[in-house]
């Protein structure tokens, strides 16, 4: 990234003084006798009349700025930069129109501020390369304040609205010293101007992550839109961050409403997976009643099916759709077990639960087998895929064993045929137990 250089319009030095009190100060300043000029301005600063004059503080800011910028003097006056900025801020209060800076003899003082900027910037770079983050932040912060003042008030021939490099590295230093609020404040200066470039993409990511953590929905929405505009090729990343923000700061019902709205458009594979993972998240579901949990699991399963239809090579999507149906089946199995007993009422209730189980068992088998076939055929499975395949054979064995047991108690030829079919399937998958674990 190229730094935005400040091309200052250095005012010509004026020797003639309109006020005798400042002639010696200006002369020593012009002759670069900064220590003598310091003695002069320090003496003036104790005078009650001079204390009310804005030029006292302007000259003090300029002189102390030169002391800080002078490599031979800066060590002798370690607080010169702080003194310069304090005097400059007092000047701004006493001369808000900047008349002293823009006209007359005191206009030469802008050079001292320019040198203070330059020294602060260079020291900031030095501290940054040494990983001295607090020191780097203070130097860059001062440089940023001065560059913003110079740019805003036309003391710079370069019409750039912002000193991009200085602002960015002020934010970096704050980020590295663990001050996200300060970092984001500087990053916003760049983002508000829609400053882009490959180097700045992580900056937007950091901002959005902080807004999400701090639950600042308006800022998240504003800067997400800018990030999407500047980096359309990172659509998947912004989608993930948007979903993560919703997961942290919105209820499942709110996310469901958003999904239903988005479903009217063509959702990408990554967007579908983000929604599915959110609705299937056990931590999100644990506070809901059982009916609500089933609703969200089925929604998640349906979304995984949509993702699989977009990318049929992703066996993990089919596996997840089957797993969610298997989980519902298992919950019903727990309910069925709780209804054990020989009374007519209990038998009726068990029969009703078993009817529901059949639906979820069939759906689980269909999608687990899809996932099983694809993952088994894959020769470069990663750990998640391998473990999913390993679980799939166990779940399928359990499901076929259950379906086999459901055929008992009926002596028909069809029941016998089903028993043999399910038993063969059970034995097939049971024989593969532990085979694919990584």
Automatic annotation (TrEMBL):
Q: Which residues form the signal peptide?
A: 1-19
Keyword list, A-Z: Signal
UniProt lineage: Bacteria, Pseudomonadati, Bacteroidota, Chitinophagia, Chitinophagales
Which top-level group of life is the source organism from?
Bacteria
Name of this protein: Tetratricopeptide repeat protein
Q: Does the keyword Signal apply?
A: yes
UniProt xrefs under InterPro entries: TPR-like_helical_dom_sf (IPR011990)
